[in-house]
Predict the 3D structure of the following.
Amino acid sequence: MRALIATFCLPLLAACIDRPGEPTVPGRWYSANQVAAGKPLFRQYCAVCHGSDGSATPDWRKTDANGNYPPPPLNGTAHTWHHPLDVLDETIANGGVPFGGQMPAFGEALDAGQRLAIIAYLQNWWPDDIYERWRQIDERSR
């Protein structure tokens, strides 16, 4: 099912959630409008754990007293870029528990377009070299 979503649904959704013909950010899959739409959503749903600039918490690689890892950075300095678009969307929708994490699910609060806007917003922080590495991973996942 994940392959079906990655191959057909998410690319079409990513291309269509803004106005038809809206140009993408150069070299990226998303538009400036998606980045702008993602900013308040990120601040509302994500920043409390991941930081307002996506830099996360200090010592995010060390477990807490319960053996849990704190939220990782989303700004391109951690492992987020290792995950294709469908996995990033799935993580926001279903939370991190299916992946062994603690992140809550936001699928009830955020529709697919809003989740993609959040991903666009955080990917907009990524340097071009990290984005390019992510793009290759995303393409291989289809």
The radius of gyration is 15 Å. Residues 3-9, 11-19 have pLDDT under 50 and may be disordered.
